[in-house]
User: Fold this.
Amino acid sequence: MNEDSIKDYIKGIPDFPTEGISFKDISPLLADKDMFQKAVEEMGNLLPKLPDYWIGIESRGFLFSSALAYKFGGGVVMCRKAGKLPPPTVNYSYETEYSKDELSIKAGRGDLVIVDDVLATGGTLQATNHLCDTAGYTVQDNLVLIDLLYVQRIPRFHLNVRSLIQYESAS
Ligand code: AMP
Assistant:
């Protein structure tokens, strides 16, 4: 295992997908077998308690929720863009740093940790928390690889989110 930092494997792409957004490209991290494994292990180790389920947010959240379930045990629940899961589903509309989306999940029971790659405005995570509550789950924790601390959170954002990597500014 080399001693590179995980941050060295995340590339900032200016003005993508729209002007003013610094997109965090995690492709180099995913492609490196040692660093991806290290990131997944360190993310899981941030949690005081392991859940029954890992809920990944489509689509990059799936990569981490699946890997965390494989490494730490527990099932996977999908949180998908609306129209992808067959009915019945619970749906919710929300805004991200650069788009408007609608998420959907299947109803269920148990403790879960919600997982995504990037936390920006928090709209996605807050919507997913709302969905999971409505669908019958108990949200135990929120876990992301990257927290963009410089992005203005949505009004009334109230979640306590665990993150492996933080960025204080876009550059
Ligand atoms: P938000 O709801 O604003 O917190 O946005 C989080 C979602 O949008 C995550 O699922 C990310 O994959 C994606 N996202 C938002 N901003 C960025 C960014 N600067 N770089 C990469 N992905 C982002």
In short: The longest strand covers residues 138-148. The helical segments are 27-31, 33-45, 60-72, 123-134. The two ends are 28 Å apart (CA to CA). The pocket of adenosine monophosphate is lined by residues 21-24, 57, 60, 96-97, 116-124, 148 (CB under 6 Å).
